[in-house]
Write a structure and sequence with these properties.
This protein has about 200 residues and is mostly helical. Helix content is about 95%, strand content about 0%.
Amino acid sequence: MNDVQKKPKNANFLYNKGLKRFFALLFARKKVLLHSKKRKQQSIRMKKYLIPLILLCLLLMGGLVWLYLDLDKQKQENREMQELAELDKQEMENEYQQFAMQYSEMKTQINNDSLMAQLEQEQQRTQELLEELQRTKANDAAEITRLKKELATMRQVLKSFVAEIDSLNRLNQRLETENQDLRQQQAEQGQNKRRGRQFLRFH
């Protein structure tokens, strides 16, 4: 009788234990599935934000590279412009120096006091402008432009002096030629008179 009563109890116990295991496995499986689904959702969410983030980083890197190259190009252009400005300034200095030398040469070619004073004044002005140019920085565009205009004015003044001195020299040469011709005529007339007197004396 006791053996008969024990069997159902054992059966119920095993049945209950099996149910517990089944539900435990089912719950564990559900938990694993939920965890897996959650991980997939997190992975999708990460991909969703990660791709734009990578693209943004690439754009930023590209922008930085472009900015660096652009700045380098601007520096190169600035260096070239500075070199051109220095060269332009040097050419202006050379031209001012040539003008000063030309004024010195012209002063040796004339005897006119008034013209000599004008040449002296212009030569001094040229020297002052040259000194201003030498003190001026090549990148001082406003001052270089002003001195360039002054240089153009000095060029015109020098041309007018050259033309005036050339005209005076031609006039002097013509006068000298006329004087030589006159002296030669006077000499010939004198010789003719002496010959006439000698002729009359013998006759």
